[in-house]
């Protein structure tokens, strides 16, 4: 825990204070990480979000049909995706794909003396390795969440249009009427917090690996488990805050 | 150690005459002035005083003291587990001692914070036993890394320097290969080129010739001699390769039982009456140096690794009790 807090303090220093002392972070590595964390995860996010949208619509149809309330299917798909399923599901995918990769990559660098070599070359590992990944995750997870929301709503539309005799305009109008901007913002706030949690836990696990290949494997597993638990607990906390604050 | 700063001209020569017996050690731009750093030709670069490092009850280093002067090549040797790597890690500031002091360029580094020690680290290079190249970068990008991070040189200038350094280690044309596409010996030579990228005043080498063929060993040795004799660079080399050690060393230290067993010039070491020294340099199986590390010692040695990563700026002291 001490290392995790120190890593966060270091990150804040390199992002908020160091640029004012002339120590700027480079843009190129951030874009490379954005491609790895975000762009390459897009197909997986799209497939998952579409499946969830389809599933939500079908489950909603099954339950609401008995109440004669099929017209609320777009509302349910929209609200569920924007507020909960979108941020959480995309975060789960990013933890499994990108978080574990970051922990394994940094862990391998640690056991092969690359991190120590950076330190001896007077290159700060947090500035050089963690800051680009952190900023890339902070941008790309919310972006992926918005992208996933769109695809999920598209999945709901597919069910409503092809199986339930909705027309496209009706689906869109109903979906837009049901949600307000706060639904989107609350999902985005969750997404940014999840991004922070995922990348700092993954980097911390990687940078503190000990014990060779076995240690890398253990750290990678630990990073996934810890990030998942922390993300789900934080989701409950944030939902509670939004629920009681609203 | 006395360091002086002289105002220089555009040709990197001091405006005022350089005092006798002083050598130029580095030059840099500060507030649009050319500053040239000079120091006595025989200045003390490293001062290790009564260094103690304990892991549990066992002292891996127990009161070690020595100095290294400018232009010297100090070879540190000793059997496996005798504390050579621990010694080296204390000198580069990767580990903190239980007691004692390590001064580099006149500055005490044992209590330094991370940002302070980075300033000192800019003045030395380190060749790791494995090369420690960044696997995600090409050979050229690895050598260029210190230049891109610490200088304002243009990409063309950096490219020229990288080509020059790779030529020095016999790897011209290897710039675009990844580390996993070259052999272990080549990685080590790239590591040497990277360590020399900023033209350091001091070079630390951990087993620089292990894994190299005899010809490339001679090339690396010649390069070390050229840098120490021609450019007043100082070198500290941890080595098991006795042929190479006797070729490059101006002074040698043998570690054992946590302390210095023998110290002297290569001739003094070669002719030392100490049976441990004779056993080690002649590679005899029988002698006073124990062949096996006891289970208890082995357990202690598991702790001989770099201090855990603790962030950068906000680093707590790592304590062993």
Describe this structure in words.
- The complex is a heterodimer of chains A (246) and B (321).
- In chain A, helix 1 (2-17) crosses helix 6 and helix 4 (73-111) runs parallel beside helix 8 (181-207).
- Chain A is an all-alpha fold and 246 residues long.
- Chain A has one domain (37-245).
- Chain A contains nine helices and no strands.
- Chain B is built from ten helices and 13 strands.
- In chain B, strands 9-10-11-6-12-13 form a six-stranded mixed sheet, with helices on both faces. A four-stranded antiparallel sheet of chain B has the order 5-4-7-8, covered by helices on one side.
- At the A-B interface, helix 1, helix 4, helix 5 and helix 6 of A face helix 2 and helix 3 of B.
Which labels suit this protein?
heterodimer; A: 246 residues; mainly alpha; 0% strand; elongated; B: 321 residues; alpha/beta; six-stranded mixed sheet; four-stranded antiparallel sheet; 10 helices; globular; disordered C terminus
The assigned structural class of chain B equals: alpha/beta
Q: What sort of overall outline of chain B do the alpha carbons produce when their principal axes are compared? A: globular
Measured distance between first and last alpha carbons of chain B: 35 Å
Number of helices of chain A: 9
Largest interface: A-B, 32 and 31 residues
The helix count of chain B comes to 10
The run of helices and strands of chain A is HHHHHHHHH
Q: What is the succession of H and E elements of chain B?
A: EEEEEEHEEHEHHHEHEHEEHHH
Based on helices, strands and strand pairing, what is the structural class of chain A?
Answer: mainly alpha
Mean pLDDT level of chain A? 89
**Share of residues in helices of chain A:** over 70%
Which band does the percent of strand residues of chain A land in?
under 5%
Q: How much beta of chain B, percentage-wise?
A: 25-35%
Helical proportion of chain B?
A: 25-40%
């Amino acid at each position: 825990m001490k290392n995790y807090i120190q890593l966060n303090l270091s990150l804040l220093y390199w992002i908020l204070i160091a640029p004012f002392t002339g120590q700027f972070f480079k843009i190129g590595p951030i874009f490379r990480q954005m491609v790895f964390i975000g762009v390459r995860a897009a197909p997986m996010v799209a497939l998952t979000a579409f499946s969830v949208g389809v599933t939500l619509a079908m489950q909603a149809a099954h339950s609401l049909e008995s109440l004669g309330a099929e017209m609320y299917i777009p509302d349910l798909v929209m609200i569920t995706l924007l507020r909960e399923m979108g941020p959480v599901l995309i975060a789960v995918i990013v933890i499994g794909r990108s978080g574990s990769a970051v922990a394994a990559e940094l862990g391998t660098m640690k056991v092969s003396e690359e991190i120590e070599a950076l330190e001896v070359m007077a290159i700060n590992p947090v500035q050089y390795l963690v800051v680009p990944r952190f900023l890339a995750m902070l941008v790309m997870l919310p972006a992926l969440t918005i992208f996933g929301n769109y695809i999920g709503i598209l999945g709901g539309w597919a069910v409503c249009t092809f199986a339930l005799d909705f027309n496209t305009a009706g689906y869109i109008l109903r979906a837009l009427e049901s949600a307000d901007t706060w639904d989107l913002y609350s999902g985005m706030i969750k997404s940014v917090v999840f991004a922070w949690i995922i990348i700092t836990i993954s980097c911390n696990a990687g940078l503190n690996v000990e014990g060779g290949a076995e240690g890398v494997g253990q750290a990678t597993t630990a990073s996934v488990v810890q990030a998942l638990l922390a993300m789900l607990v934080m989701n409950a906390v944030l939902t509670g805050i939004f629920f009681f604050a609203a | 150690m006395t360091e002086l700063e002289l105002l220089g001209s555009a040709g990197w020569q001091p405006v005022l005459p350089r005092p006798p017996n002083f050598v130029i050690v580095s030059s840099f731009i500060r507030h649009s002035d050319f500053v040239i750093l000079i120091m006595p030709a025989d200045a003390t670069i490293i001062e290790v005083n009564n260094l103690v490092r304990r892991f549990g009850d066992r002292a891996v280093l127990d009161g070690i003291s020595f100095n290294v002067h400018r232009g010297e090549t100090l070879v540190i040797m000793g059997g496996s587990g005798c504390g050579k790597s621990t010694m080296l890690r204390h000198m580069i500031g990767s580990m903190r001692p239980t007691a004692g002091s390590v001064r580099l360029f006149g500055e005490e580094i044992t209590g330094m914070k991370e940002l302070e020690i980075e300033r000192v680290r800019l003045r030395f290079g380190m060749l790791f036993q494995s090369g420690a190249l960044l696997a995600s970068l090409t050979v050229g990008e690895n050598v260029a890394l210190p230049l891109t991070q610490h200088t304002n040189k243009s990409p063309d200038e950096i490219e020229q320097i990288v080509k020059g350094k790779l030529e020095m280690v016999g790897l011209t044309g290897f710039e675009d290969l990844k580390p996993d596409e070259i052999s272990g010996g080549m990685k080590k030579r790239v590591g040497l080129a990277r360590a020399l990228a900023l033209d350091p005043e001091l070079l630390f080498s951990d087993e620089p010739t292990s894994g190299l063929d005899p010809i490339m060993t001679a090339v690396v040795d010649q390069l070390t001699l050229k840098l120490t004799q021609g450019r007043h660079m100082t070198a500290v080399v941890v080595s098991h390769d006795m042929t190479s050690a006797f070729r490059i060393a101006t002074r040698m230290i043998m570690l054992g039982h946590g302390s210095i067993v023998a110290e002297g010039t290569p001739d003094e070491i070669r002719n030392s009456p100490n049976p441990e020294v004779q056993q080690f340099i002649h590679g005899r199986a029988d002698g006073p140096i124990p062949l096996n590390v006891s289970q208890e010692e082995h357990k202690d040695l598991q702790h001989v690794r770099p201090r855990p990563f603790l962030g950068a700026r906000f680093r707590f002291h790592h304590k062993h009790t």
